[in-house]
Write a structure and sequence with these properties.
This is Putative secreted protein. The protein is mostly beta strands. It contains four helices and 34 strands. The protein has a domain of 167 residues: YVTN repeat-like/Quinoprotein amine dehydrogenase (Methylamine Dehydrogenase, Chain H). It has a five-stranded antiparallel sheet with strand order 2-30-29-28-27, with no helix packed on it. The longest helix has 13 residues. It starts with 7 loop residues before the first helix and ends in a 22-residue tail after the last helix.
Length: 510
């Protein structure tokens, strides 16, 4: 997510200041790697290559308005239809994009569905449906409409659904990829920031990330022409925050809700009547953005990414990291933190264009964002905004000490996660990065939806030399101390920061 960028003129003035306010401490990034190179240049590990790019066509959006804050890609999902592979990519205000990726090195945009909304988060699900006397498989995409973002020029998606533009979730039939068509709409007063369809395809859990006063709406979508709210899950957030993102377990018996200041583990064995099992409050996390489960060896974990500053533009790189809690056995009811991971520190060049531009100067965003875990390969692939795309090895989690009674102040040792591959351009602003299919040797094409670049395809070669710098695995205590150091420097979550690259360090200011 990106929170609304406010007071940009004031931010621009602040960005010209040479130093922090008097008495403020400085976060030392003297060892950071400088990437002050031309905007079209890149840096990567030996095992990562860039193979293709599809730039988004902004003609539909630009014909209606020109808004600097409305950028490009958001989330990306996949579908195989009639023997061909497709990426289904969301955008800010620029509609649903469907790309044929059957040949990953020659992706082709096959349709751009006009839908002038935010957030544009997309999920894909399939159903067996009766069509006359035949049973057919239909593929659908859900498309998120935040409150207030539908009050724009009329969009084809709302016209096809036969509804007036409003906040909620659109259901788009993409069974014919060249001719997507909205066939239903769940009108949700508080809007949709993200949504997740239960594996049974009959219920959708809505995350509005601010609006319902601390809840998750459970929507019956068995009849897409008439979605119906059946109940609300009350958030355990101490401040009444709503869910930001939800991930279901593969078998559908659990949901993991990242709800800004808490992660909830929910029993969804009956998706129409879920119950909360436990909650995770982590003082080292500023914003619970996404929480996903993973089993490594005989141990179960949930990985929470911290979207530092709400991705509003922070220039601390790597920003928020990945925090790991064990939920094996009885620990599901009482999760225990085992550590946290941060990618290598870099100094993203000034004006890289990865954040909102003010008078030609870009506000750089760098923090962990949308990721996907691949349990069989023991890998996590993630978009890290200005830091590009990263591949992280999770195999070490099998051997980290069990923190049964240590909790968040525990001192775990070992190395739970290591970076094995990365690629970033100097104008990267990677929202999401995912793999559709892995090769037998552990190699894969990675598909990324980027705010400034559009749709990128990378190749990860698992047989080649890995990244030189594995990143940093920290104990729970060290992760908390890291955040304390950042805050002591004057940085306030969801606010901005001043970065003087000539000093080789980030200077933080309220």
């Amino acid at each position: 997510m990106r929170y609304a960028r406010l007071l940009l003129a004031a931010l621009f003035v602040l960005s010209l200041l040479p130093a922090v306010s008097a008495g403020a401490a400085v976060l030392d990034l003297s060892e950071a790697v400088s990437v002050a190179t031309p905007i079209d240049e890149s840096v990567s590990s030996p095992n990562m290559t860039h193979v293709a790019n599809v730039e988004w066509d902004f003609s539909l959006r630009d014909a209606e308005r020109s808004t600097p804050d409305i950028a490009g890609g958001t989330d990306v999902e996949f579908a195989t239809i009639d023997g061909r592979d497709y990426a289904v990519a969301g955008t800010y205000s620029n509609g649903l994009q469907i790309i044929d990726i059957t040949d990953p090195e020659a992706p082709a945009l096959v349709s751009q569905y006009h839908c002038d909304v935010l957030q544009g988060d997309v999920q894909v699900f399939t159903r067996e449906e009766v069509d006359g006397t035949d049973t057919v498989t239909r593929t659908y995409a859900t498309y998120a409409v935040e409150g207030g973002s539908s009050n724009r020029a009329p969009s084809q998606c709302f016209a096809d659904a036969g509804v007036t533009a409003d906040a909620g979730t659109l259901f788009i039939d993409i069974s014919t990829p060249t001719a997507p068509e909205a066939v239903g709409f769940a009108r949700i007063v508080e809007g949709t920031h993200n949504q997740s369809v239960h594996p049974d395809g009959e219920y959708m859990y809505n995350s509005n990330s601010g609006g319902c006063g601390g809840c998750i709406e459970v929507i019956d979508i068995r009849d897409l022409s008439n979605p119906t709210e059946v109940m609300r899950i009350e958030s355990t957030s101490a401040t009444g925050e709503d869910s930001h993102d939800i991930t279901f377990s593969a078998d559908g018996t659990r949901a993991y809700s990242a709800a800004i200041d808490v992660t909830m583990i929910i029993d969804t064995t009956d998706p129409a009547a879920p119950t909360v099992i436990s909650s995770i409050v982590d003082p080292a996390v500023t914003l619970h953005h996404q929480s996903d489960p993973v089993t490594i060896g005989d141990r179960e974990f949930v990985i929470i990414n911290d979207e530092l500053a709400g991705a509003a533009g922070n220039e601390v790189c790597p920003g928020g990291g990945l925090h790991v809690w064990e939920i094996t056995g009885d620990m599901e009811a009482d999760p225990q933190k085992v550590g946290a991971f941060f990618t290598p520190e870099v100094t993203v060049r000034e004006g890289a264009g990865t954040g909102v531009s003010v008078s030609g100067i870009g506000v750089v965003t760098c923090t962990s964002h949308v990721f996907r875990i691949y349990e069989e390969q023991e890998k996590l692939v993630i978009g890290w905004f200005g830091a590009g795309v990263h591949v992280i090895d999770l195999s070490g989690l099998a051997d980290v000490p069990v923190a049964v009674s240590a909790g968040v102040l525990g001192q775990s040792v070992g190395v739970g996660m290591e970076e094995v591959g990365f690629f970033r351009f100097n104008n990267s602003d990677t929202w999401s990065a995912k793999v559709m299919e892995w090769d037998g040797d552990g190699s894969a094409y990675i598909f990324a939806d980027d705010q400034t670049r559009g749709f990128d395809v990378y190749h990860f070669d698992n047989t080649a030399e890995t990244a030189e710098n594995p990143g940093t695995w920290m104990s729970p205590t060290a992760a908390l101390e890291r955040l304390d150091t950042l805050l002591a420097s004057g940085f306030v979550p969801k606010q901005y920061l001043i970065c003087d690259l000539t000093l080789g360090r980030a200077q933080l200011s309220q």
